[in-house]
Amino acid sequence: MVLIWCCKIMGLWEMRLSQETEKQGAHDSSEQKKEQQTYIMCRRDIKPLYKQLRKCKLNVDILDALYLIVQYCLMKEYVKAHDKYMELAIGNSPWPMGVTMVGIHERSGRSRIFTSQVAHILNDETQRKYLQSVKRILTAC
What is the 3-state secondary structure (H, E, C) of 87-136? Predict the structure, then answer.
């Protein structure tokens, strides 16, 4: 279902871009060119997600979150879909910004926040790219 939805939205996005291009003719605005570039980048970056979905090799946690995002979009609950995307992308854990010693006292739980110990979904470049593509599709909706 996630694969079908992504393909359908990408197709609709491409149709809308081509219709806008036909209306404008040779006078493409810079905003329209930027959106076309975004579409091309999105189409390129989402291919690994398509492959993993076709081969049923996608991580179950990511698949569940993507399924909920699709469900919210189908119900036109875009705010909830965006919230679910943010939960998938950054999670609910505190996000240390590199500052562990602010004052004279050590921060509680400091030993647990080193980056080598954090298994984060955006650490993988391929996952980061296709999740950003999902966000772009969500924005296009």
Answer: HHHHCCCCCCCCCCCCCCCCCCCHHHCCHHHCCCHHHCHHHHHHHHHHHH
Which regions of the chain are under pLDDT 70? 25-28, 92-123
> What's the domain count of the chain?
1
Q: Largest alpha-carbon pair distance within the chain?
A: 64
How much is the pLDDT for 22?
80
Residue 121: the pLDDT is: 63
- Report how far Cα 89 is from the mean position of its chain's Cα atoms: 7
Q: How far apart are CA 68 and CA 84, in angstroms?
A: 7
Please tell me the predicted confidence (pLDDT) of residue 61.
86
Q: How many CB atoms lie within 10 A of CB 121?
A: 16
CATH number at residue 96: 1.20.940
Question: Residue 46 sits in which domain range?
Answer: 2-140
What per-residue confidence (pLDDT) applies to 114?
Answer: 44
